[in-house]
Each structure stands twice: as structure tokens, then as C-alpha cells.
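[RESIDUES AND BACKBONE]
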Amino acid sequence: MSVNTSLTPWEKARTRYVIWTIVSINRFFDTYYTALQYAASEASTMIDSLTNLIDPIKKPSMTLIYVLSALAVALCFLGLPAVLDGVAATVASATVGVVSKEVQQGLTNTAQTFLLATMSAPGFARSMWPQGNTNSQIYQEAQLETILAQARDQIGDTIDSGLKVLMADAAEFTLFAGLGRYSGQIQLSVPQETDYLSLSLKTLMTGESLLQNRWFANASPSPAYYHQYSLDKWSTCSNAGSGIWDCQGQGYYFSESTGRQYALKNKKSGKKNSVNILQQIASNGWADMNVLFDGAYNCTASGLAGGPPIHVDTNGTIDMTCISPLPIYTEDAENGYGCPAPLLNGKCPFGEWE
């Protein structure tokens, strides 16, 4: 790497440092772009099985910008040890489909570095996850299978929008690359075939499919309620594995992160097929179960349910709790538990289950 010979030694060193950082960031985004193409294609393979399981007649539709947002946030999703209240606590340390522990740890470090850099640069975050109506086309999930499998252009546009901000705005570049995040001798990169990179998008698609087919979760009003009526003490319940319980055909998911229990129900068919759906989601890796339920719970409690899956605050903070749009209700207030969250506009954000 050569620089202007008229510069002082200090200026030369500083110039080399900046150039190296620019090259490293661009190389990183090249690998991220390639890995996201694999993740999009990999996520598309679950669509037929998912829709056939939940409801083969009603094909859910999704807004393209939400799909792209959930895909682009994939690395932040892996880099975040928890999405409020311990959600996704095991994601960052999970097996990510790579060859060795060294590569796996390298991916975790890369993900966490990217998350910190992104949350330090608000302009970059807003360019990657716009909150407007760009790309607001709505597609059925059957159409998404083809779109995701050939999402090269859409992914490229998303990556380019972020890179343009970094390369054109010196202040934003400094915020993103601060603390030498991309200036070390070890190049940060994302393995091309990283299975868990599609987990954020899969969680969104699974939650959206459940929502549009009238599924919802009835959450216990508090961890104390769970401990009082513990599932493992119910003689009519059996442990179905992966945090799932079968109580006379009613499927429950128990979150060890929060201590909450969720009964999966359908507004039309009740508990029918709820155990099988939970087992299929868990065994096929169609969603991070804690994010699917606890994330949706926290999203509802915050009053953000029904909005975009990714929220970027003005300070660059990325909120991923709403990546699961699964509707959450709570036990009837007549049981004496009331609303488990602060009232919003005088009403409980959860409502009452039907």
C-alpha cells in the first residue's frame, strides 16, 4: 500500500490506517452480501412446508420491505446475546453450520462487532433499515419463495445504501469504524454458508404465517402464575421436548428465559394441531422459539405490535423485539391478575384471549 511521499511519517501512518479500514469494511460487506444471498435462498426452502402445515388454503402475504429488513438485520440478530428479557440468549453461541469452533467464535465476534458499529452510527442504521414505505410491495409467501431465491439485486441495494452513507459521510464513517473495529490484522468476514443467518427472517415469516392464519398465543399473566400452576405438575400434560408441552392436545411453549408459558391457539379451530405446529417449528428451525413468543410479548407490551419488525431509534439503537408479529393475549382479567404491562391510552396492550 503506497501513499504520497511528501507526507510526514505520522501522516503516512494515519493515511495507511484509514485506507486499511476502508478496504476492510468493503471486504466485510462483500462477504456479508454473499452470505445473505445464501441465507435468503435457504429461508425460501421452508415456505412450502410452513404454509402446508399451518394452512395450505390461505397463503400468507408479506411486505417486501419487512422481509428485506429482517434479512439485512441477520448479523445483528446473531450478535445480540439477548433481545430484552433474555430473548435469543442462546443464538450467539449456537452452532451456526460452520466447520470449526474457531470459525464459529469468529462469526460471533464479527456479529457483535457489526452490531456495536451499527448502533454507534445512526445514519448508517437508518439507511439499512428505512422506516418509510420504500419497497412496500406485498407478495404472497409462494411468490417470496422465488423472490428470496433470486434476491441478489434487493440484497445488493440494501448493502449499497449502507455503504454509500459510510463512504460519503466522514463523521458517520468515524462512528461506525471507531475504536479500531475494522482496523485489526484479522479480517472480519461472514462465512458464505451460515445456516443461522436466516433465523431472523425465518422467525418473521413463521410469526406472520401464524398471524394471518388466525393463530395467537395466550400468555400466562406472570412468571408467578406459572410457578403456581406448573405444567410439569399437571397430570394431564406430557413433555413434548424443546420447551413444548402437550396438555390434552393443547400445545404450550415454556420459555426458560422469562418463565412465561404460552398456549398456542387458533381463533377458528381452537387448540387443534397446536402441539404438532410447535414441534415442527422447533425441530425444523423455522424460528427462534424465544423470540417468536417472548419477543412478541415484549413487542406487544411496548405498544409497537402491528408495526415494522425492525425499529431504529434516532440514536441508532436497533430494536428487534417486533421481528415476531405473533399476536399475544393474556388470561382473562376476571382471574384477578389484571394487565401484566402498563396501560397504553388507558387500555391493556394485550387485550383478553377469546
In short: The beta strands are 61-63, 138-140, 215-219, 237-241, 244-247, 250-254, 261-266, 311-312, 318-319, 328-330. Residues 37 and 151 are 7 Å apart (CA to CA). The two ends are 67 Å apart (CA to CA).
